[in-house]
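ok here's the first one, seq then struct tokens
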Amino acid sequence: MTNCQPTMRKTRFVCVSDTHNASPNGAFKLPKGDVLIHAGDMTNQGSFSELQKTVKWLEEADFEAKIVIAGMALNFS
């Protein structure tokens, strides 16, 4: 009888937020990981061009899975 135990694998999560239009290898460095979580505040003004720039580096990031939470900080003035 063969012993069929499941193989355990560690998953490394990398969490970032408040990048405000910055990109890796510029203003910050992304460590290696399996899952990338971007928890908001990706742009400064929320313009289409800023969003395109951020989406580009997110698409190019080498992670098995990516979770992106859209949103900006609220400013109550």
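and now the second one, same deal
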Amino acid sequence: MNRVTTILRARCGLRARLLMAFVIAASAGVVRAEEALSPDADAKYRSSLKEALAEYDASHFEEARILFRRAHEIYPNARTLRSIGMASFELRDYVAAVRALSAALVESRKPLSLDQRTHAQGLLDRSRMFVDVYTIKVTPADARILIDGRVPESEPDGTVLLGFGTHNLEASKAGFLVRTLVLNVRGGEHKDLAMTLERKPVVASQPASSTLTQSPQAQPPAEAASESAGDGHWGAGWFFAAGGAALAAGGAGALWLFQNKELSRCRTPPPGNGPCNNESTILGLRNVAVGATVATGVGAVTLAVIGILNRDSSSVSSPAPSTQQSSLSCAVYVSGFLCARTF
């Protein structure tokens, strides 16, 4: 099996060498007859073809294609185009193969022989099996199209060739939303692609608002109303606190009366009762009740007075912008309370 493979490879290499040798010999003769190249250009042309043949025979297809293209630049003809297409096919660059082989079949300078045309046509048909042809229409028509980040090369008929695989298409224009598509190329298909870009939404511009200069003490009406409402809430809070203190004072007073009655029974027990053994405990509870009653009562009165003062201050109309506002501060102590107003 290995021997057969070696023989086939040798035959293929021999066939390629004979084919390329024929290209070189024929090309050289026609160049002199038709184009009358200078001796220096003719030497470079023959040298490029000879080097290209060696690289192609060594399966260095990238180097061979570069040399074929260099020869084609010196003397463009159908034979060099066919050689470029053959190297591109071996490199699996089927888009380049389709372009070069298609051009070789219609090139009039040094046209292909019948056998060469048959070979080129067969290789072209195989290359097209791995290429999709796209007809792309984008609205607006002057939108920019990028495929895989590059501007695509269009064919003479306006179509775009893409090799098999996945490609990213992007269409954009100033004032429009960018649109992207993923293209899956399977080969051998002709596809029509139509895209319409949407305009970017117009953002309404906000009118320039005039700014008013206010003095440092000036206060907007909304803030003044908010603070006035806040002062009203604080006044109501003081009254609620005073009510709670008053309830606490009532409870402490009730405890005071109860313990006072118990102390009287302990000191003058009714007939038939034994001596009182917890007079000191009852006395202590009564004293605590007395202190709590006095403290909560004073606190209730204090909180009520503070609430009245705050309500009065909030009911006064807000001062002019140039007038400094006043504030009321109160502190509660064990022996009483202290309030001060700043102006």
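notes on #2: The chain has eight helices and eight strands. Helices lie at 2-35, 39-57, 61-74, 78-90, 94-106, 114-128, 221-267, 279-315.
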